[in-house]
Amino acid sequence: MGKMSTPERSWALYDWANSAYSIVVVTAIFPLYFKSAASNAGIAAHTSTAYWGYANSLATLLVSILAPLLGTIADFRGFKKRFFTFFASLGVIFTLMLSVVPNNQWLILLGCFVLTSIGFAGANIFYDAFLVDVTDKERMHRISANGYALGYIGSTIPFVISIAFIILAQQKIIPISVPVASQIAFAITALWWGLFTIPMLKNVEQKYYVDRVRHPVATSFKKLFLTLKNIKAYRALFLFLLAYFFYIDGVHTVITMSTAYGSDLGLDATTLLIVLFVTQIIAAPFSMLFGKLSDRFNEKRMIAVGILVYIFICIYAYFLESALDFWILAMLVGTSQGGVQALSRSYFAKLIPKESSNEFFGFYNIFGKFAAILGPVLVGATAQMTGNTSSGVFSLIILFVIGGILLLRVREDGEPVSTTTISS
Predict the structure, then answer these.
(1) Model pLDDT for residues 194-231, shown as the tens digit of each residue
(2) CA dihedral defined by 303, 141, 203, 126, rounded to 10 degrees?
(3) Is residue 328 part of a domain?
(4) Do the domain assignments include residue 1?
(5) Distance, CA of 117 to CA of 123 (rounded, Å)
(6) What is the distance between the alpha carbons of residues 90 and 96, in angstroms, rounded to a whole number?
(7) In a domain, 407, yes or no
(8) DSSP state, 101?
(9) pLDDT, tens digit, for every residue of 47-101?
(10) 12, 20, 229, 404: which could form a disulfide with 158 (CB 3.0–4.6 Å)?
Protein backbone atom coordinates (compact mmCIF):
# COMPACT_ATOMS: atom_id res chain seq x y z
CA MET A 1 0.00 0.00 0.00
CA GLY A 2 1.41 3.38 -1.02
CA LYS A 3 1.04 6.72 0.70
CA MET A 4 -2.45 7.80 1.61
CA SER A 5 -4.08 10.28 -0.74
CA THR A 6 -5.32 13.63 0.56
CA PRO A 7 -8.97 12.43 0.82
CA GLU A 8 -7.86 9.20 2.56
CA ARG A 9 -5.66 11.10 5.01
CA SER A 10 -8.34 13.73 5.67
CA TRP A 11 -10.93 11.01 6.28
CA ALA A 12 -8.68 9.08 8.68
CA LEU A 13 -7.85 12.31 10.54
CA TYR A 14 -11.49 12.61 11.66
CA ASP A 15 -10.89 9.55 13.88
CA TRP A 16 -8.03 11.54 15.40
CA ALA A 17 -10.46 14.44 15.86
CA ASN A 18 -13.46 12.81 17.50
CA SER A 19 -11.85 10.03 19.57
CA ALA A 20 -10.92 12.59 22.24
CA TYR A 21 -14.65 13.01 22.87
CA SER A 22 -15.06 9.27 23.52
CA ILE A 23 -12.45 9.12 26.25
CA VAL A 24 -12.84 12.57 27.87
CA VAL A 25 -16.61 13.07 27.76
CA VAL A 26 -18.09 9.57 27.53
CA THR A 27 -15.63 7.45 29.52
CA ALA A 28 -13.38 9.30 31.91
CA ILE A 29 -14.05 12.90 32.98
CA PHE A 30 -17.62 14.04 32.29
CA PRO A 31 -19.35 11.12 34.09
CA LEU A 32 -17.47 12.02 37.29
CA TYR A 33 -18.11 15.74 36.72
CA PHE A 34 -21.84 15.15 36.28
CA LYS A 35 -22.03 12.90 39.35
CA SER A 36 -20.32 15.61 41.40
CA ALA A 37 -22.66 18.32 40.08
CA ALA A 38 -25.74 16.18 40.84
CA SER A 39 -24.43 15.36 44.31
CA ASN A 40 -23.90 19.06 45.07
CA ALA A 41 -27.51 19.63 44.04
CA GLY A 42 -28.64 17.14 46.67
CA ILE A 43 -29.38 14.25 44.31
CA ALA A 44 -28.64 10.79 45.66
CA ALA A 45 -25.84 8.83 44.00
CA HIS A 46 -28.10 6.04 42.75
CA THR A 47 -30.56 8.58 41.32
CA SER A 48 -27.86 10.48 39.40
CA THR A 49 -26.55 7.16 38.07
CA ALA A 50 -30.05 6.36 36.83
CA TYR A 51 -30.29 9.78 35.16
CA TRP A 52 -26.92 9.17 33.50
CA GLY A 53 -28.16 5.84 32.19
CA TYR A 54 -31.40 7.38 30.92
CA ALA A 55 -29.48 10.13 29.09
CA ASN A 56 -27.23 7.60 27.35
CA SER A 57 -30.20 5.43 26.41
CA LEU A 58 -32.18 8.40 25.06
CA ALA A 59 -29.34 9.54 22.81
CA THR A 60 -28.74 5.98 21.58
CA LEU A 61 -32.44 5.40 20.91
CA LEU A 62 -32.92 8.65 18.96
CA VAL A 63 -29.89 8.08 16.73
CA SER A 64 -30.73 4.41 16.17
CA ILE A 65 -34.31 5.16 15.13
CA LEU A 66 -33.33 7.98 12.78
CA ALA A 67 -30.14 6.40 11.37
CA PRO A 68 -31.53 4.35 8.43
CA LEU A 69 -33.92 7.10 7.28
CA LEU A 70 -31.32 9.87 7.55
CA GLY A 71 -28.86 7.60 5.80
CA THR A 72 -31.27 6.94 2.97
CA ILE A 73 -31.88 10.68 2.49
CA ALA A 74 -28.11 11.31 2.62
CA ASP A 75 -27.57 8.91 -0.29
CA PHE A 76 -29.01 11.60 -2.58
CA ARG A 77 -26.36 13.79 -4.19
CA GLY A 78 -25.05 16.56 -1.96
CA PHE A 79 -26.73 15.46 1.27
CA LYS A 80 -24.01 13.32 2.84
CA LYS A 81 -21.60 16.20 3.52
CA ARG A 82 -24.44 18.41 4.81
CA PHE A 83 -25.62 15.79 7.30
CA PHE A 84 -22.08 15.05 8.45
CA THR A 85 -21.38 18.76 8.95
CA PHE A 86 -24.62 19.28 10.90
CA PHE A 87 -24.05 16.41 13.33
CA ALA A 88 -20.33 17.07 13.81
CA SER A 89 -21.09 20.76 14.49
CA LEU A 90 -23.84 19.77 16.95
CA GLY A 91 -21.37 17.59 18.84
CA VAL A 92 -18.59 20.18 18.91
CA ILE A 93 -20.82 23.11 19.92
CA PHE A 94 -22.50 21.32 22.82
CA THR A 95 -19.22 19.82 24.03
CA LEU A 96 -17.99 23.40 24.21
CA MET A 97 -21.21 24.28 26.07
CA LEU A 98 -20.23 21.77 28.79
CA SER A 99 -17.30 24.07 29.57
CA VAL A 100 -19.45 27.18 30.15
CA VAL A 101 -22.63 25.84 31.79
CA PRO A 102 -22.31 26.38 35.58
CA ASN A 103 -21.61 23.11 37.36
CA ASN A 104 -24.65 23.59 39.61
CA GLN A 105 -26.95 23.28 36.57
CA TRP A 106 -26.86 19.49 36.43
CA LEU A 107 -30.01 19.16 34.28
CA ILE A 108 -28.68 21.54 31.60
CA LEU A 109 -25.36 19.66 31.67
CA LEU A 110 -27.20 16.40 31.09
CA GLY A 111 -29.17 17.94 28.22
CA CYS A 112 -25.97 19.20 26.61
CA PHE A 113 -24.49 15.72 26.96
CA VAL A 114 -27.46 14.15 25.17
CA LEU A 115 -26.98 16.59 22.27
CA THR A 116 -23.24 15.94 22.13
CA SER A 117 -23.95 12.19 22.01
CA ILE A 118 -26.43 12.62 19.18
CA GLY A 119 -23.93 14.78 17.29
CA PHE A 120 -21.09 12.31 17.83
CA ALA A 121 -23.06 9.20 16.85
CA GLY A 122 -24.87 10.92 13.98
CA ALA A 123 -21.65 12.25 12.42
CA ASN A 124 -20.10 8.79 12.67
CA ILE A 125 -22.80 7.27 10.46
CA PHE A 126 -21.87 9.56 7.59
CA TYR A 127 -18.16 9.49 8.39
CA ASP A 128 -18.13 5.68 8.15
CA ALA A 129 -20.17 5.85 4.94
CA PHE A 130 -17.60 8.21 3.38
CA LEU A 131 -15.10 5.32 3.40
CA VAL A 132 -16.48 4.16 0.04
CA ASP A 133 -15.89 7.66 -1.41
CA VAL A 134 -12.29 8.21 -0.31
CA THR A 135 -10.66 4.93 -1.36
CA ASP A 136 -11.06 1.80 -3.46
CA LYS A 137 -12.09 -1.67 -2.38
CA GLU A 138 -8.53 -3.02 -2.15
CA ARG A 139 -7.39 -0.26 0.25
CA MET A 140 -10.46 0.01 2.50
CA HIS A 141 -9.17 -2.25 5.27
CA ARG A 142 -5.85 -0.40 5.55
CA ILE A 143 -7.44 3.05 5.49
CA SER A 144 -10.06 2.03 8.07
CA ALA A 145 -7.35 0.55 10.32
CA ASN A 146 -5.22 3.70 9.94
CA GLY A 147 -8.23 5.74 11.03
CA TYR A 148 -8.65 3.71 14.20
CA ALA A 149 -4.90 3.89 14.91
CA LEU A 150 -4.94 7.68 14.53
CA GLY A 151 -7.99 7.77 16.80
CA TYR A 152 -6.23 5.90 19.58
CA ILE A 153 -3.15 8.13 19.35
CA GLY A 154 -5.12 11.36 18.93
CA SER A 155 -7.41 10.68 21.87
CA THR A 156 -4.51 10.35 24.30
CA ILE A 157 -3.11 13.85 23.69
CA PRO A 158 -6.08 15.95 24.92
CA PHE A 159 -6.79 13.26 27.53
CA VAL A 160 -3.31 13.57 29.06
CA ILE A 161 -3.50 17.38 28.97
CA SER A 162 -6.92 17.27 30.62
CA ILE A 163 -5.84 14.84 33.34
CA ALA A 164 -2.77 17.04 33.99
CA PHE A 165 -5.00 20.07 34.61
CA ILE A 166 -7.22 18.08 36.97
CA ILE A 167 -4.31 16.58 38.95
CA LEU A 168 -2.58 19.96 39.22
CA ALA A 169 -5.84 21.47 40.45
CA GLN A 170 -6.30 18.64 42.99
CA GLN A 171 -2.77 19.19 44.32
CA LYS A 172 -3.34 22.97 44.52
CA ILE A 173 -0.37 23.49 42.19
CA ILE A 174 -2.42 25.73 39.92
CA PRO A 175 -4.96 28.24 41.32
CA ILE A 176 -8.13 26.69 39.90
CA SER A 177 -10.72 24.25 41.27
CA VAL A 178 -11.22 20.70 39.99
CA PRO A 179 -14.60 21.62 38.39
CA VAL A 180 -12.91 24.47 36.48
CA ALA A 181 -10.13 22.09 35.40
CA SER A 182 -12.82 19.71 34.13
CA GLN A 183 -14.45 22.54 32.19
CA ILE A 184 -11.07 23.31 30.61
CA ALA A 185 -10.90 19.63 29.60
CA PHE A 186 -14.26 19.91 27.81
CA ALA A 187 -13.13 23.06 26.00
CA ILE A 188 -9.89 21.38 24.89
CA THR A 189 -11.88 18.38 23.62
CA ALA A 190 -14.32 20.54 21.66
CA LEU A 191 -11.55 22.61 20.07
CA TRP A 192 -9.54 19.47 19.23
CA TRP A 193 -12.60 17.85 17.64
CA GLY A 194 -13.51 20.96 15.65
CA LEU A 195 -9.98 21.81 14.47
CA PHE A 196 -9.15 18.36 13.11
CA THR A 197 -12.55 18.01 11.42
CA ILE A 198 -11.60 20.81 9.00
CA PRO A 199 -9.54 18.56 6.64
CA MET A 200 -12.53 16.21 6.33
CA LEU A 201 -14.83 19.11 5.45
CA LYS A 202 -12.31 20.55 3.00
CA ASN A 203 -11.03 17.49 1.16
CA VAL A 204 -13.66 14.73 1.26
CA GLU A 205 -16.58 14.71 -1.19
CA GLN A 206 -19.40 12.32 -2.00
CA LYS A 207 -18.49 10.33 -5.13
CA TYR A 208 -21.27 7.74 -5.02
CA TYR A 209 -24.85 8.88 -4.79
CA VAL A 210 -28.40 8.57 -6.01
CA ASP A 211 -29.63 11.41 -8.22
CA ARG A 212 -31.92 13.84 -6.47
CA VAL A 213 -35.69 13.55 -6.78
CA ARG A 214 -38.52 16.00 -6.20
CA HIS A 215 -39.61 14.50 -2.86
CA PRO A 216 -36.47 13.08 -1.22
CA VAL A 217 -38.04 12.26 2.18
CA ALA A 218 -41.01 10.35 0.74
CA THR A 219 -38.71 8.59 -1.74
CA SER A 220 -36.34 7.69 1.09
CA PHE A 221 -39.15 6.03 3.03
CA LYS A 222 -40.05 3.98 -0.05
CA LYS A 223 -36.41 3.04 -0.64
CA LEU A 224 -35.98 2.02 2.99
CA PHE A 225 -39.07 -0.18 2.92
CA LEU A 226 -37.90 -1.71 -0.37
CA THR A 227 -34.57 -2.62 1.23
CA LEU A 228 -36.33 -4.29 4.16
CA LYS A 229 -38.76 -6.07 1.83
CA ASN A 230 -35.90 -7.47 -0.26
CA ILE A 231 -33.70 -8.34 2.71
CA LYS A 232 -33.06 -11.86 1.37
CA ALA A 233 -31.15 -10.35 -1.55
CA TYR A 234 -28.64 -9.01 0.97
CA ARG A 235 -28.13 -12.35 2.72
CA ALA A 236 -24.34 -12.12 3.15
CA LEU A 237 -24.56 -8.54 4.32
CA PHE A 238 -27.25 -9.08 6.95
CA LEU A 239 -25.69 -12.34 8.11
CA PHE A 240 -22.53 -10.33 8.74
CA LEU A 241 -24.56 -7.69 10.61
CA LEU A 242 -26.02 -10.42 12.82
CA ALA A 243 -22.53 -11.77 13.54
CA TYR A 244 -21.35 -8.21 14.19
CA PHE A 245 -24.21 -7.65 16.65
CA PHE A 246 -22.97 -10.48 18.87
CA TYR A 247 -19.20 -10.13 18.76
CA ILE A 248 -19.12 -6.31 18.88
CA ASP A 249 -21.41 -6.51 21.92
CA GLY A 250 -18.70 -8.55 23.59
CA VAL A 251 -15.99 -6.08 22.53
CA HIS A 252 -17.94 -3.06 23.81
CA THR A 253 -18.82 -4.80 27.07
CA VAL A 254 -15.19 -5.64 27.81
CA ILE A 255 -14.32 -1.96 27.22
CA THR A 256 -17.20 -0.44 29.22
CA MET A 257 -17.01 -2.86 32.16
CA SER A 258 -13.21 -2.82 32.46
CA THR A 259 -12.95 -0.01 35.02
CA ALA A 260 -15.66 -1.55 37.24
CA TYR A 261 -13.89 -4.91 36.97
CA GLY A 262 -10.52 -3.37 37.86
CA SER A 263 -12.11 -1.57 40.80
CA ASP A 264 -13.44 -4.89 42.11
CA LEU A 265 -9.85 -6.18 42.02
CA GLY A 266 -8.81 -3.29 44.27
CA LEU A 267 -7.14 -1.01 41.70
CA ASP A 268 -7.42 2.69 42.52
CA ALA A 269 -8.77 5.33 40.12
CA THR A 270 -5.32 6.65 39.17
CA THR A 271 -4.06 3.17 38.26
CA LEU A 272 -7.18 2.51 36.19
CA LEU A 273 -6.66 5.74 34.24
CA ILE A 274 -3.03 4.79 33.57
CA VAL A 275 -4.13 1.32 32.38
CA LEU A 276 -6.70 2.96 30.10
CA PHE A 277 -4.04 5.27 28.69
CA VAL A 278 -1.54 2.45 28.03
CA THR A 279 -4.25 0.34 26.39
CA GLN A 280 -4.94 3.20 23.97
CA ILE A 281 -1.24 3.41 23.11
CA ILE A 282 -1.01 -0.33 22.43
CA ALA A 283 -4.21 -0.35 20.37
CA ALA A 284 -2.81 2.10 17.80
CA PRO A 285 -0.01 -0.01 16.27
CA PHE A 286 -2.05 -3.20 16.55
CA SER A 287 -4.91 -1.61 14.61
CA MET A 288 -2.44 -0.89 11.80
CA LEU A 289 -1.00 -4.41 12.10
CA PHE A 290 -4.47 -5.93 11.67
CA GLY A 291 -4.92 -3.78 8.56
CA LYS A 292 -1.57 -4.88 7.15
CA LEU A 293 -2.20 -8.57 7.84
CA SER A 294 -5.54 -8.26 6.04
CA ASP A 295 -3.60 -7.79 2.82
CA ARG A 296 -2.51 -11.40 3.17
CA PHE A 297 -5.32 -13.09 5.09
CA ASN A 298 -8.36 -10.81 4.31
CA GLU A 299 -10.61 -8.96 6.78
CA LYS A 300 -12.92 -11.85 7.62
CA ARG A 301 -10.09 -14.11 8.81
CA MET A 302 -8.44 -11.33 10.80
CA ILE A 303 -11.77 -10.46 12.48
CA ALA A 304 -12.01 -14.16 13.39
CA VAL A 305 -8.50 -13.97 14.90
CA GLY A 306 -9.61 -10.99 16.98
CA ILE A 307 -12.67 -12.94 18.18
CA LEU A 308 -10.41 -15.84 19.24
CA VAL A 309 -8.23 -13.40 21.20
CA TYR A 310 -11.33 -12.11 22.99
CA ILE A 311 -12.42 -15.67 23.82
CA PHE A 312 -9.00 -16.20 25.42
CA ILE A 313 -9.43 -12.87 27.27
CA CYS A 314 -12.72 -14.09 28.77
CA ILE A 315 -11.10 -17.35 29.90
CA TYR A 316 -8.07 -15.53 31.33
CA ALA A 317 -10.36 -13.08 33.16
CA TYR A 318 -12.01 -15.96 35.00
CA PHE A 319 -8.69 -16.77 36.73
CA LEU A 320 -7.72 -13.15 37.43
CA GLU A 321 -6.31 -12.59 40.92
CA SER A 322 -3.89 -9.65 40.94
CA ALA A 323 -3.22 -6.21 39.52
CA LEU A 324 -0.56 -7.76 37.27
CA ASP A 325 -3.19 -10.08 35.82
CA PHE A 326 -5.38 -7.06 35.08
CA TRP A 327 -2.49 -5.32 33.32
CA ILE A 328 -1.92 -8.41 31.14
CA LEU A 329 -5.64 -8.57 30.37
CA ALA A 330 -5.71 -4.89 29.39
CA MET A 331 -2.73 -5.33 27.08
CA LEU A 332 -4.47 -8.28 25.38
CA VAL A 333 -7.57 -6.12 24.86
CA GLY A 334 -5.36 -3.43 23.33
CA THR A 335 -4.01 -5.88 20.75
CA SER A 336 -7.42 -6.62 19.27
CA GLN A 337 -10.10 -4.03 20.02
CA GLY A 338 -9.06 -1.53 17.33
CA GLY A 339 -8.36 -4.18 14.71
CA VAL A 340 -11.72 -5.89 15.14
CA GLN A 341 -13.63 -2.60 14.92
CA ALA A 342 -11.62 -1.22 11.99
CA LEU A 343 -11.86 -4.38 9.87
CA SER A 344 -15.57 -4.78 10.65
CA ARG A 345 -16.14 -1.31 9.21
CA SER A 346 -14.13 -1.95 6.04
CA TYR A 347 -15.55 -5.46 5.50
CA PHE A 348 -19.07 -4.07 5.77
CA ALA A 349 -18.18 -1.25 3.35
CA LYS A 350 -17.13 -3.84 0.77
CA LEU A 351 -20.43 -5.72 1.03
CA ILE A 352 -22.78 -2.76 0.57
CA PRO A 353 -23.84 -1.01 -2.65
CA LYS A 354 -21.76 2.17 -2.74
CA GLU A 355 -24.57 4.42 -3.90
CA SER A 356 -26.54 3.43 -0.75
CA SER A 357 -23.67 3.53 1.72
CA ASN A 358 -25.39 5.95 4.12
CA GLU A 359 -28.55 3.86 4.32
CA PHE A 360 -26.61 0.69 5.07
CA PHE A 361 -24.27 2.34 7.55
CA GLY A 362 -27.46 3.49 9.27
CA PHE A 363 -28.28 -0.20 9.81
CA TYR A 364 -24.67 -0.80 10.86
CA ASN A 365 -25.09 1.93 13.47
CA ILE A 366 -28.31 0.36 14.79
CA PHE A 367 -26.73 -3.07 15.19
CA GLY A 368 -23.69 -1.53 16.89
CA LYS A 369 -25.77 0.62 19.26
CA PHE A 370 -28.27 -2.03 20.32
CA ALA A 371 -25.38 -4.48 20.72
CA ALA A 372 -24.39 -2.41 23.76
CA ILE A 373 -27.39 -3.76 25.70
CA LEU A 374 -27.04 -7.54 25.92
CA GLY A 375 -23.42 -7.84 27.11
CA PRO A 376 -23.61 -5.66 30.26
CA VAL A 377 -26.86 -7.40 31.26
CA LEU A 378 -25.20 -10.80 30.76
CA VAL A 379 -22.17 -9.79 32.84
CA GLY A 380 -24.31 -8.21 35.57
CA ALA A 381 -26.77 -11.10 35.85
CA THR A 382 -24.03 -13.75 35.88
CA ALA A 383 -21.95 -11.84 38.42
CA GLN A 384 -25.01 -11.37 40.62
CA MET A 385 -26.02 -15.04 40.47
CA THR A 386 -22.50 -16.35 41.13
CA GLY A 387 -21.28 -13.56 43.40
CA ASN A 388 -18.17 -13.36 41.22
CA THR A 389 -17.33 -10.60 38.71
CA SER A 390 -14.91 -12.91 36.90
CA SER A 391 -17.76 -15.30 36.12
CA GLY A 392 -19.64 -12.37 34.57
CA VAL A 393 -16.77 -11.60 32.20
CA PHE A 394 -16.36 -15.32 31.43
CA SER A 395 -20.03 -15.45 30.32
CA LEU A 396 -19.19 -13.13 27.39
CA ILE A 397 -17.70 -16.16 25.63
CA ILE A 398 -21.27 -16.92 24.52
CA LEU A 399 -21.42 -13.70 22.49
CA PHE A 400 -18.03 -14.24 20.84
CA VAL A 401 -18.77 -17.87 19.96
CA ILE A 402 -22.15 -17.02 18.39
CA GLY A 403 -20.64 -14.06 16.53
CA GLY A 404 -17.71 -16.15 15.31
CA ILE A 405 -19.92 -18.99 14.02
CA LEU A 406 -22.18 -16.55 12.15
CA LEU A 407 -19.15 -14.76 10.69
CA LEU A 408 -17.80 -18.03 9.29
CA ARG A 409 -21.12 -18.51 7.47
CA VAL A 410 -20.76 -15.22 5.56
CA ARG A 411 -19.77 -15.97 1.94
CA GLU A 412 -16.12 -15.21 1.21
CA ASP A 413 -17.16 -13.96 -2.21
CA GLY A 414 -20.09 -11.92 -0.91
CA GLU A 415 -20.24 -9.20 -3.54
CA PRO A 416 -22.25 -6.02 -2.96
CA VAL A 417 -25.76 -6.16 -4.33
CA SER A 418 -26.77 -3.38 -6.70
CA THR A 419 -29.81 -1.39 -5.63
CA THR A 420 -30.73 -1.23 -9.30
CA THR A 421 -31.00 -5.01 -9.33
CA ILE A 422 -33.13 -4.98 -6.20
CA SER A 423 -35.60 -2.46 -7.52
CA SER A 424 -36.08 -4.19 -10.85
Answers:
(1) 999 999 999 999 888 777 666 666 776 676 667 666 65
(2) -40
(3) yes
(4) no
(5) 10
(6) 10
(7) yes
(8) S
(9) 887 787 788 778 877 887 787 777 778 888 888 899 999 999 999 999 999 999 9
(10) 20
